[in-house]
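Exercise 7.
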Amino acid sequence: MLVLKNVMVFHSYPAVFSPEDYLALEQGSSLKHEYLQGQMVAMAGASKAQVLITGNLGSRLINHLRGQSCLVYASDMKVRLAGLNVFYYSDIAITCDDRDRRSQESFISHPQVIIEVLSDATESFDRGKKFADYKSILESQEYVLIHQKQMLVEHFQRRSENLWLPTIYQARDQLVLSSLNFSCPVTSLYEGLEQLLS
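Solution. The predicted structure, written as tokens, is:
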């Protein structure tokens, strides 16, 4: 059974998938699915705004980190949370961990920074359960939520095991990712979207 954003779609698949089954099915699938403790959840397609924001920030991060030991993955890389039996797709995930760089798997397990572009369909999940699950990744230092209908970025930085400090960035601000020694104008994330913003 596949769960498609409030619509149940029945297939001749088993009700519960193993992680290995999920990875094999996902490799040949034309749709992306997240994996939550045996269930495959189909993902909605991205909006133009989401694609542009991800591309704008992703390209800046790649240029900034070029020649360093960190890798930037946008959209199509799964993040595995083995202890929770979960695989998520993030909009951008940055890993600086040698285990991820050496792995030939179709996922990473030790991201340092995770970035999600919020949509109406995913916002409550991204800021709720997904964030709570991402906190279990020991290497995770920063979590970023980018709004696509206004120039607004929510940034959370790990200060201790259970304390994440929030910061709000608006159009006049510089987004700062301290763990990557990175900053850029918030306006640069929204290049190409000026006519669509409220």
